[in-house]
Design goal:
alpha+beta; Endonuclease III, domain 1; Nucleoside Triphosphate Pyrophosphohydrolase; 2 domains; seven-stranded mixed beta sheet; 16 helices; about 40% helix; elongated; binds iron/sulfur cluster
């Protein structure tokens, strides 16, 4: 590759970052030595995977209060860990973080990049970021923001990701010259705040040498990623209550929803709505919402139905006392129904006949 020398090209980034950097709770003032709390860097990097900085800040602060070091996190009950992560999404990260903390608590921090990459949940990007920011290793970290900045700076046509090995080799001398922690965070900061998808080139310290800006190509470098159309579904989300208890699915051991309690759900297509009949069985249906995930969109219709007494639930369901509900880790969609249950002034709307839903929650012999 005939790219210009990275220490020279990226030199303006260092003073810009010292001036413009955001004050974030996991950042230290001293960018020239190892970070005094590598665990804080690890927590922040895991939280920042897939999640915006503004969302992460309060979670990070509470997390460090509750689990101040790897040993505390390693020993924490799984429910407490998921509860502290509740609302951040991608819950696998919480489990990986706890497993990584257990490894660090037992064996100490790895001595090199390969060792960091072997910790659960890190992968090449996070390992390199932790290596550079926590330990000052010249290990270039390439995430989506950094790929975008480099693609524009160097006028890389097409998807820059296949060039990752070349880009890492190109970046390493700049990290050595200007400080691994400073350069890594400066590139991330530039991608997050200036060289965003719609870039603010007038505010960019690299505007002079930026090849895409000079060529008038900032709009098409890098090309927009093609996204598959999300799958759509429509479901009832049911809070079935009896004797001050509600029915929930306990957490699965594995999979995307591992660690989370869940309300029972039913495909809306199999339960067509009927007008609510005033009667002895209180039913509350709220206006629904669309829950957006990476690859699917769910039209959610929440329901609250009372039955007189607890029955033997179907396999995979468990009665939980209402007073314990607030302490259980739930995913975003299910938190919303929990919050609705606690909202006064519930108004009955059109609801489905709940009998089929109730039957589906009961064990066959009940
Ligand atoms: S000049 Fe514009 S396109 Fe180039 S790196 Fe800076 S913000 Fe990005």
């Amino acid at each position: 590759m005939s790219w210009p020398s990275s220490p020279e090209l990226l030199a303006p980034l260092a003073p810009w970052f010292d001036r413009a950097r955001r004050d974030l709770p996991w950042r230290t003032a001293d960018l020239d030595g190892p970070h005094p709390a590598p665990y804080a860097v690890l927590v922040s990097e895991l939280m920042l995977q897939q999640t915006q900085v503004a969302t992460v800040i309060p979670y990070f602060t509470r997390w460090l209060e509750e689990f101040p070091d790897p040993g505390a996190l390693a020993e924490a009950p799984e429910d407490a860990v998921h509860k502290a992560w509740e609302g951040l999404g991608y819950y696998r990260r919480a489990r990986y973080l706890q497993a990584a903390a257990a490894s660090v608590a037992a064996e100490g921090w790895p001595a090199d990049l390969e060792g960091l990459a072997d910790l659960p949940g890190l992968g090449p990007y996070t390992a390199a970021a932790v290596g550079a920011i926590a330990f000052q290793w010249p290990t270039p970290a390439l995430d989506g923001n950094v790929f975008r900045v480099l693609a524009r700076l160097l006028l890389i046509e097409g998807d820059p990701k296949p060039l990752a090995p070349d880009l890492r080799s190109w970046l390493a001398p700049a990290l050595k010259a200007h400080g691994p922690s400073r350069m890594t965070q400066a590139l991330m900061e530039l991608g997050a705040t200036v060289c965003a998808p719609a870039p603010a080139c007038a505010a960019c310290p690299l505007a002079g040498p930026c090849a895409a800006r000079r060529a008038g190509r900032t709009g098409d470098i890098p090309p927009a990623a093609k996204r598959a159309k999300p799958k759509a579904s429509s479901l009832w989300l049911l809070a079935l209550e009896a004797e001050a208890h509600v029915l929930l699915h306990p957490p699965a051991a594995r999979g995307l929803l591992a660690g989370l309690w869940r309300w029972p759900t039913f495909e809306a297509a199999s339960h067509s709505p009927q007008p609510t009949v005033p009667g002895p069985r209180p039913i509350v249906a709220w206006p629904g919402w669309v829950q957006v995930y990476t690859h699917r969109r769910e039209a959610v219709s929440p329901l609250h139905v009372h039955v007189e007494s607890r029955f033997t639930p179907a396999e995979g369901l468990r009665w939980v006392a209402r007073e314990e509900l607030r302490g259980l880790p739930l995913g975003k969609r299910d938190q919303r129904l929990r919050d609705l249950l606690e909202t006064p002034g519930q108004v009955p709307l059109e609801a489905p006949d709940p009998e089929s839903l109730i039957r589906a929650c009961a064990a066959p012999s009940a």
